[in-house]
Amino acid sequence: MFRNMRRKGQQLTIDECEEILTNQPRGVLALLGDYDYPYALPMSHVYVNGKIYFHGAQKGHKNDAVLNHSKCSYCVMDDGVKANDNWWYTFKSVIAFGNIKTLTDKDEKIEALTYLGDKFFPTHEETVDEINRLLERTEVFEITIDHMTGKVVQEK
To answer: For 86-121, how does the pLDDT look when each residue is reduced to its tens digit (9 = 90+)?
Structure first.
């Protein structure tokens, strides 16, 4: 169903892909939006137990797109390394294809938000405070990954 990577020598292992998803804070979520136009937006994420989680508002373009079409992709790049005395970078990227849904179970939402908060807030206490303050106004999205590839790219 999914295409094989054309340049196999650049392909990352699943472990390398998971390391990038775990350590990098942001990526670009691609959905099928209004009038069947692609809708791609930057998101902060957390990768836990083979799934990707995001949070956001309870209404908007993203929410409508998720409700209308569950297939999505998510792309993440590392910071890369600049070549000495040159303009180009070597970087690694991951693209995950899967199905996205909105979490409706309160305990699942809290668990995912805890993972997200603990990744981004300085302390766990701040995570708990934010969840308590904003849970009822926050949507949580989960991607179940069907296929994932990664590659190393040299811009030169």
So the answer is: 888 889 999 999 999 999 999 999 999 999 999 999
What residues are paired with 142 via a beta bridge? 53, 101
Distance CA 60, CA 124 (A): 29
Supply 29's token pair.
Answer: 């979520």
Tokens of 149: 């590839």
**For residue 108, what are the contacts with CB-CB under 8 A and spacing of at least 6?**
140, 142
32 Cβ contact list (under 8 Å, min separation 6): 38, 39, 65, 68, 69, 71
Short-list 80, 73, 79, CA closest to 95: 73
Task: Give exposure, 96-106, as e/b (b: 16+ Cβ within 10 Å).
Answer: bbbebebbeee
pTM: 0.93
Residue listed under structure tokens 């169903």: 1
The DSSP secondary-structure symbol of 50 reads: T
